[in-house]
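Milestone 3.1: sequence recovery, worked example.
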């Protein structure tokens, strides 16, 4: 593994020399740059760091020649990454690289790669630049497809943590089977899958029962019959030690498990989907001492918060992130709950559809802690299987999309929210809030358009009431300007305006943005995975190019 980079470099040079007299293949890539200039702000008690101007840069290149693909990603965090990013992201250099051979049913990758088994509960290696997250594996992966009946994957490697690698080696195998290729089911599609992922890490503590090889197993199935569909997944994690602040906590080992079930129905104009999930000590890290870190560093599996991902700022003040771990101090061992979505379209020229039709989206999510009893002296617990414990989060929301005329479109959202801040953030009080959003879009002459967004959050708890407004003007498909403000007018301690204004320009594969304003501190979530963003003020800019 230590010489893998040198070997891959030699392979690339050999092939580049070999193709000089032949066809050139295909070259592509992209560059992204993000800059932030911090200013001190007395209103939010923010003190700018000494290095006020910071930048994050990604240069990605890919080359394909016949059955071979090569790629690398260069990253630079100069002089440091943004506030709220992992301290492991510092300096600059080649962060990832790979070479892949693919022909017929076989694909072999050496270097860094991303992958996912099942829903990701047992294993996922992925990148999300907005979160500052890159959990790629550096190693070898082999994929083979058996005549569309089975997809088999085997992999091994070390996980990326900043510009370094995890101290453990990860091994994994996954098999997905299309049972219709083996047995013909009339009007039914049936698929199943199995996964095994294990981490090998030497026991550097005093717990002699802790084995270096600790793995997770997953079994699942997917069933589609006409307009109905369902899928189920079960994951079991072998006993492992707990850690916090890079220290093993105790001598007791705890296993873990996860249950995930989806059920749905869809037809033209109607869709229903329900999800149930139970988690108990299921988070897995490539370094056990990274457990509980704030940056998702070393996370081996994908455990998102299963709630509606709202597009509006006030609806993202109180966001839920999954609670899969154990905390004896907080008496938490996991979560249980689910969400349901209902989509319905009222047809045109009906009483509720009107001239252009009306679209409704109803979403309900509710999450509890597992009901459990704790023996603090012996550091053990017993959790009920299905009985819910303390309420953590509830979101009931209705979204109405309506075209008023050929030039006016509206979106109205009504949200009833409950948020257990003491359990989720270890401070404050339980929040019950009501949120109203009206989003109006106006089409103007000569490809111009305007958008007005009005929001209000009403609560007697925490920081009390908020109001927000956003105005956006699009000169054409390429250029726009916007200005907005979030005002915490109900705050008894200090009323603050979180203002922002800026512009974006987009053409072909180029996008440029520039903005100035205040950032409200709190959780930033993408796809149900979150990181903490501190309050700040200043200028932000970004540039994105593709070639």
């Amino acid at each position: 593994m230590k010489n893998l980079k040198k070997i891959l470099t030699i392979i690339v040079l050999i092939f580049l020399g070999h193709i000089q007299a032949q066809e050139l293949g295909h070259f592509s890539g992209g560059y992204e740059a993000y800059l932030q200039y911090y200013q001190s702000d007395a209103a939010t008690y923010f003190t700018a760091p000494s290095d006020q101007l910071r930048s994050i840069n990604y240069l990605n290149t890919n080359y394909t020649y016949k059955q071979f693909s090569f790629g690398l990603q260069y990253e630079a965090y100069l002089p440091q990454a943004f506030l709220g990013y992992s301290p492991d992201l510092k300096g600059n250099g080649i962060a990832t690289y790979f070479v892949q051979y693919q022909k017929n049913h076989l694909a072999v990758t050496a270097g860094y790669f991303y992958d996912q088994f099942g829903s990701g509960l047992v294993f996922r290696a992925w990148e999300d630049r907005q979160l500052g997250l890159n959990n790629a594996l550096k190693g070898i992966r082999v994929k083979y497809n058996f005549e569309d009946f089975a997809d088999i994957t085997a992999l091994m490697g070390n996980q990326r943590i900043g510009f370094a690698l995890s101290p453990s080696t990860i091994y994994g195998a996954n098999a997905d089977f299309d049972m219709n290729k083996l047995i013909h089911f009339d009007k039914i599609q049936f698929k199943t899958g199995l996964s095994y992922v294990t981490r090998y890490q030497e026991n550097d503590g005093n717990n002699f029962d802790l084995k270096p090889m600790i793995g997770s197993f997953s079994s699942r199935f997917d069933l589609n019959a006409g307009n109905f569909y369902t899928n189920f997944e079960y994951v079991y994690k072998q006993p492992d030690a707990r850690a916090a602040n890079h220290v093993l906590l105790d001598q007791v080992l705890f296993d873990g498990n996860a249950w995930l079930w989806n059920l749905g129905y869809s037809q033209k104009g109607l869709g229903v989907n329900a999800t149930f999930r139970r988690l108990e000590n299921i988070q897995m890290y490539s370094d056990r001492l990274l457990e509980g870190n704030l940056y998702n560093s070393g996370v081996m599996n994908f455990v998102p918060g299963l709630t509606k991902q709202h597009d509006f700022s006030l609806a993202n003040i109180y966001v839920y992130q999954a609670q899969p771990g154990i905390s004896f101090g907080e008496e938490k061992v996991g979560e249980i709950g689910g969400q349901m979505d209902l989509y319905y379209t009222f047809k045109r020229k009906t009483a509720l559809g009107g001239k252009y039709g009306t679209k409704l989206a109803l979403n309900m999510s509710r999450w509890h802690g597992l009901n459990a009893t704790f023996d603090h002296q012996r550091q053990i617990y017993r959790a009920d299987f299905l009985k819910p414990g303390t309420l953590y989060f509830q979101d009931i929301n209705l979204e109405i999309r309506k075209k008023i005329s050929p030039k006016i479109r509206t979106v109205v959202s009504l949200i009833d929210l409950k948020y257990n801040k003491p359990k989720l953030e270890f401070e404050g009080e339980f929040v019950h809030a009501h949120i109203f959003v009206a989003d109006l879009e106006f089409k103007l002459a000569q490809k111009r358009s305007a958008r007005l967004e009005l929001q209000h959050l009403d609560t007697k708890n925490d920081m009390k009431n908020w109001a927000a407004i956003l105005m956006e003007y699009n000169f054409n498909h390429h250029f726009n300007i916007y200005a907005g403000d979030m005002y915490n007018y109900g705050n008894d301690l200090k009323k603050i305006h979180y203002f922002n204004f800026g512009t974006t320009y987009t053409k072909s594969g180029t996008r440029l943005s520039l903005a100035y304003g205040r950032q409200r501190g709190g959780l930033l979530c993408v796809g149900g995975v979150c990181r903490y963003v501190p309050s700040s003020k200043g200028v932000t800019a970004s540039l994105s190019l593709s070639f």
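The longest helix spans residues 4-18. The CA atoms of residues 454 and 469 lie 5 Å apart.
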